[in-house]
Structures are given as C-alpha cells and as structure tokens.
Specification:
Elements: E1 2-14, E2 20-26, E3 31-34, H1 37-45, E4 50-60, E5 63-73, H2 76-79, H3 89-105, H4 116-140
Antiparallel strand pairs: 1-2, 1-4, 2-3, 4-5
Helix pairs in contact: 3-4
Length: 141
C-alpha cells in the first residue's frame, strides 16, 4: 500500500536480540514499524516533511502489524499548495471516510465481504459531511 503523509516523529527501540526497531508516526497518529536501518534513518531524515510511504500489513492473531517498506520525499509540485495540508477536499474527505469504514459499517462479521454498492452507500454521506466540514473550516480561516 502507498500513501502521502507527514512524518510527525521517529522513535527507536533496542530489541532483546540486539536489533533496532524504528517506529514512525505520521500526523494522523498512524504508526509504521521497520527493522531496516536504511528505511528508519531515511524516515528520520524527513521528519516534519510530507513523504510518500509504501507499507504492508501483517495480521498476527488479533493484532495487525504495519511495516514500513519505503520512504521518499514528495515533490513540492505534488503538494499543490500549503505544505502539510490536503488541497483536494474531496480526496481528504474520502480518505477519512475509508479510514472510518470499520466503524461506519460495523465489524460484527469482519471476514465477510460487504457488497460494493452497500459500502458506498454507507461511506458517501459521511464523506460529503467531512468535505462540507473541511470547506466550512477553510472559509472560517
């Protein structure tokens, strides 16, 4: 998976077997882990900046581990405006709706697929409300 985020901070932890674990947190409070020094150091280098990250998830029992695979800076032309802010309201709102999907559709049967039309019908009104809220907030600033 891939997304553009701003790195809030990078922490390191020594493991019992002598390795270093890097924990990268973005401004959305999502955390990504890597044991690869090159990736961890690169994340430290870009702390406080917008970057494109590639990551994968690994389900272990009831936990989901999120592993960082790649960190690269985002070109200024890709940010289309003020650094650190989403300029496409619809995209930001849709991303928020997708992140909220487990709570919007419920997790009573997490292993069953939800038909696409049903999922869209639940997410779209939420996305529209978030977009309106973002636009209202921008107008107040």
């Amino acid at each position: 998976m891939e997304k553009v985020v701003e790195i809030a901070d990078v922490r390191t932890f020594d493991t019992r077997n002598g390795n270093v674990r890097y924990v990268v947190r973005d401004t959305y409070d999502d955390e990504y882990t890597t044991f690869r020094e090159a990736i961890g150091d690169r994340a430290k280098q870009f702390a406080g900046r917008r970057v494109r990250i590639k990551y994968h998830e690994n389900q272990r029992g009831q936990y989901t581990n999120v592993y960082l695979d790649e960190v690269e800076p985002v070109a200024e032309s890709e940010t289309q405006g003020e650094p650190g802010r989403d300029t496409d309201v619809e995209e930001a709102a849709w991303r928020t709706a997708v992140d909220a999907a487990p709570w919007l559709v419920g997790e009573s049967q997490p292993h069953e697929a939800i038909p696409p039309d049903e999922l869209y019908e639940k997410l779209k009104p939420f996305e529209e409300r978030v977009a309106a809220d973002i636009e209202r907030s921008a107008d107040e600033d």
